[in-house]
């Protein structure tokens, strides 16, 4: 019977592939838009550059192949070339307008004579002036400047100690007027054209010039364009590596910008409406909690069950001791320590800003709902990856009539330990973020491209809090919900690691490929993006043969069973202890088989001392779902402590309901 239920579940999974397919399709349209690249090489073509130009000639194919491979599905690249020499040369510039035909690029390079130059300095500014005249169109634009000598003028080289004749030998035009206004102008134009800049120099004589260029690009503040100066060691291979490094760095910057023309992030709001309250912080100490002012509050726990996003919000009147001063301050909120009647440590979180929309019922409701949803995903993630279970701490809506002037705030269990932020909702990833990133990717996959839990932060690597959920077209999940924009942004910066692979997650077309350059200097790449046609054929072959669906389901079922406990690999990040779900404040070290056993036996994760009470207070009732003969098990002890209502459906039915809930985001459901 339980097998039937699993099959039912998997049927939904296959059904939802159609939804995932359409999510992948629409993402690939957005990817095509974002992944068009114009790459212009502006290079010194005088005698001293002979070996480097040779390298470029040989490697231009590899470079194009790499850019396409690293962008992945749906990308396109055009190349433009500007070869520059010096004032005294017969042919000072040779220009190839943007083209996507690499043969043209090769032909141009073959015809290009490496010659002339006269004095060491060259007309670099002139080369840039030609480049800004090209027909820049793509959404991502990169200008590579390759040179081994600075441009003319004292502004660009260290000539202070030199006597006049030595200086003249190095630079025939030390007072070249081009070093001033024209140089400023061409850099302003480059920024205006939104060109990323990758400087590659083969000589230390260019250091000052690149410093000046960097400063010129910084004028006018943060434009979000990358400026990179690299020093290849002169070998062809290193040259290609530098081009690739510059490309990757520019693209991850520019793709992010393209996808978000008017970025306003919940965690980056600098001047929200409503003035910021300033409260002093006080060190955290629980000893005198009985002296903290008592507050009569209404605590509402949300339970996400059934297709309705929240069913039976469970209200209880409680008495809390809340300290006058907060102990922590985030970007957005203050955290106050509080202790309830039973002595459980809790945290009250309020927004720092005055004004109705900040600490409104809707805003707090959205935060609590977001965390409730995140926990559904975390539970499923932990079931599939029990070697690294994750847990979102429980939180509640708190309504107080006389606490400061905050009527609504969020209340949650206190997590002891060192607080860490792994990812933001804008695509940022800190160090040690592979588990957090894999979890975000997993939530997207599980919800068939509908939702993504981001902004992963918490204590240790397992107990998390304050997530955000991206869900296109939904008004739930509050101000941090950036919809597709947020999900795209995550994928543009995410490359799948071992955990994603172990979970078999579908890749998004917005991810960049994992191309690598091999010893021989050729590009090897493996595009694992799921193309919609692949999904199509696998689905249609399933649908066409009679009985095939059942066979597929049985097969997936057995693979699911055998994958239930993936062998832990030493290199995988292991998660830390979880919080006892009875809210005693205790930590539980449970992972792998132990975690799954624990879950089966007690329906939750409890510490040693709570386990006994959970066991003693276990209740059994028939599942109230139609056609279900299973029983509901719950602990009265836990219900009392968490202030939640007894579940009405069994574990399997609840899992199914949660799945349906995640799969269907139905805006017609009302918040209450
Ligand atoms: Zn020269
Ligand atoms: Zn991934
Ligand atoms: Zn406990
Ligand atoms: Zn049931």
Automatic annotation (TrEMBL):
PROSITE patterns: ALPHA_KINASE (PS51158). Its main location: secreted. Keywords: Kinase, Secreted, Serine/threonine-protein kinase, Signal, Transferase. SUPFAM superfamilies: Protein kinase-like (PK-like), vWA-like. The keyword Ligase does not apply. One of its GO terms (molecular function) is ATP binding. This is Alpha-type protein kinase domain-containing protein. Residues 301-508 form the Alpha-type protein kinase domain. It is found in: Secreted. It comes from the Eukaryota.
């Amino acid at each position: 019977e339980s097998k039937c239920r699993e099959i039912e579940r998997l049927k939904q999974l296959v059904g939802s592939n159609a939804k995932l397919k359409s999510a992948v399709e629409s993402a690939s349209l957005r990817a095509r838009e974002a992944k068009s690249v114009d790459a212009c090489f502006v290079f010194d073509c005088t005698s001293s550059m002979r070996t480097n130009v040779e390298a470029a000639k040989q490697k231009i194919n590899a470079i194009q192949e790499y850019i396409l491979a690293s962008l992945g599905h749906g990308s396109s690249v055009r190349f433009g070339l500007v070869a520059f020499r010096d004032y005294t040369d017969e042919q000072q510039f040779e220009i190839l307008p943007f083209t996507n035909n690499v043969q043209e690029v090769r032909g141009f390079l073959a015809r290009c004579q490496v010659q002339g130059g006269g004095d060491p300095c060259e007309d670099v500014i002139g080369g840039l002036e030609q480049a800004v005249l090209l027909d820049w169109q793509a959404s991502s634009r990169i200008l590579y400047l390759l040179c081994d000598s600075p441009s003319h003028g004292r502004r660009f080289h260290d000539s202070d100690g030199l006597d006049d004749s030595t200086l003249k030998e190095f630079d025939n035009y030390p007072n070249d007027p081009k070093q001033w206004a024209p140089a400023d102008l061409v850099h302003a134009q480059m920024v205006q054209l939104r060109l990323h800049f990758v400087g590659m120099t083969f000589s230390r004589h260019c250091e000052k010039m690149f410093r000046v260029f960097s400063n010129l690009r910084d004028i006018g503040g943060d434009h979000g364009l990358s400026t990179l100066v690299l020093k290849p060691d002169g070998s062809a291979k290193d040259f290609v590596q530098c081009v690739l490094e510059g490309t990757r760095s520019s693209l991850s910057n520019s793709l992010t910008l393209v996808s978000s023309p008017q970025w306003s992030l919940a965690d980056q709001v600098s001047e929200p409406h409503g003035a910021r309250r300033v409260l002093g912080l006080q060190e955290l100490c629980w000893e005198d909690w009985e002296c903290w002012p008592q507050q009569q509050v209404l605590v509402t726990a949300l339970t996400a069950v059934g297709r309705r996003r929240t069913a039976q919000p469970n209200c209880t009147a409680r008495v809390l001791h809340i300290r006058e001063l907060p102990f922590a301050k985030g970007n957005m909120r203050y955290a106050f320590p509080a202790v309830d009647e039973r002595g459980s440590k809790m945290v009250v979180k309020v927004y720092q800003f005055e004004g109705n929309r900040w600490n409104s019922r809707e805003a707090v409701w959205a935060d609590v709902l977001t965390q409730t949803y995140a926990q559904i995903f975390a539970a499923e993630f932990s079931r599939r990856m029990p070697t690294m279970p994750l847990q979102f701490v429980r939180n509640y809506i708190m309504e107080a009539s006389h606490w400061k002037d905050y009527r609504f705030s969020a209340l949650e269990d206190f997590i002891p330990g060192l607080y860490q932020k792994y990812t933001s909702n804008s695509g940022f990833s800190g160090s040690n973020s592979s588990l957090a990133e894999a979890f975000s990717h997993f939530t997207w996959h599980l919800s068939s491209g509908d939702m993504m839990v981001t902004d992963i932060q918490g204590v240790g690597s397992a107990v998390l809090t304050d997530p955000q959920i991206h869900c296109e077209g939904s008004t739930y999940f509050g101000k941090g919900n950036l919809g597709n924009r947020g999900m795209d942004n995550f994928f543009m910066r995410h490359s799948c690691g071992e955990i994603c692979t172990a979970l078999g997650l579908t890749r998004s077309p917005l991810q960049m490929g994992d191309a690598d350059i091999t010893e021989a200097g050729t590009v090897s790449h493996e595009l694992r993006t799921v193309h919609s046609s692949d999904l199509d054929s696998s689905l249609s072959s399933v649908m066409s043969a009679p009985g095939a669906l059942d066979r597929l389901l049985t097969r997936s079922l057995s693979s699911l069973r055998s994958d239930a406990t993936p062998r832990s690999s030493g290199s995988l990040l292991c998660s830390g202890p979880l919080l006892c779900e009875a809210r005693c404040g205790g930590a539980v070290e449970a992972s792998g088989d132990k975690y799954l056993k624990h879950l089966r036996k007690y329906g939750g994760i409890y510490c040693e001392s709570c386990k006994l009470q959970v066991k003693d207070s276990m209740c059994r009732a028939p599942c109230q779902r139609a056609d279900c003969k299973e029983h509901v098990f719950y602990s009265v002890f836990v219900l009392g402590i968490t202030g939640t209502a007894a579940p009405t459906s069994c574990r399997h039915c609840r899992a199914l309901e949660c799945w349906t809930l995640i799969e269907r985001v139905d805006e017609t459901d009302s918040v209450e």
